[in-house]
Amino acid sequence: MRTVSNPQDPLEQAADWQIRLQEEPHARADFEQWLTESDAHRAAWRKMETLWGALGELPVEPQTAHARSLVPEPTRRPQPINRSCRRWPALATAAGMAAIAIMMAPQATLALRADYQTGVAQVRTVQLADGSTVVLSPQSALKVLDADGRQVELLKGQAYFQVAPDPQHPFIAHAGQLSVRVLGTAFDLDLQQDAAEVALEHGQVQAENTQPPLSERLMPGQRLKFSWPSGKVERSSLVPTQVAAWRRGSLFIENQSVADIVEQLQRYTSGWIVITDPSLNTRRITGVYDLNDPPRALKALAQSLGVNSRQMTPWVHTLGNF
């Protein structure tokens, strides 16, 4: 039997009820009694349903469908919340087995394609056949495209490459629509939901794309971000020692969008990080965050935005005034 925690906080009670109704369908009568006790309970339940909807189109259980008849519909439909956060898998039993299957399907496909893969908060170092070294960040996947290891594809996440020199055989790394061609160098490659970013620590790289056409040479301390389908190219500079600082547990952010920052923090967090206010997605932030303590990093981000960070359940963290 699950008990509802913190009776002073209706929103946390609603989160507990969302879980309990999945585990104990026979508790419907107790839930309906809680729901009718106050307007605050009904408002909290509406918020929780909005939040749960942001995590994916979950099947509606009979008991929750009946409960909706007891809750007046809001006069304004809730806005969709941070679609990027719907992509990340979780171990949430509250979502039900069907929802877990939906979330895990892309991961299963990725596992079949990848030669090397990492999980939440896991960093892995890989030695390729040509002597090059690749450090995979958390929740990343890499496929080796040829036997000598000189051509690879980053399927997901982020990786730092220390490429063994071989003038006769250029090293090529693909990430989405972007390709990076080098002879011998060290660079960081980050594949995001709809963009790819390359940052150079030392040496030279050639960043290339076919549609739209792009061919640009980077020097140490330069960073290039290519977004699709817009074709937008962003160029910026950083201290070369900050390239792939995630290997040392630090996330250096300079004028990056909140959506991009959350996507990076998500790799170190089990479950979902949900941005409850879509207007936050495009806000730009500069700062340094501790990847060894993701909840603290999320709270620091929230503080810089003037909003709240909250752990709703062990699997759901929110960012915004929710």
TrEMBL record:
One Pfam family named in its UniProt record: DUF4880
GO function term, MF aspect, one: sigma factor antagonist activity
InterPro entries according to UniProt: FecR, FecR_N, Ferrdict_sens_TM
Domain named FecR N-terminal: residues: 12-51
Location of the FecR protein domain: 115-206
Annotated protein name in UniProt: Fec operon regulator FecR
Native species: Pseudomonas fluorescens
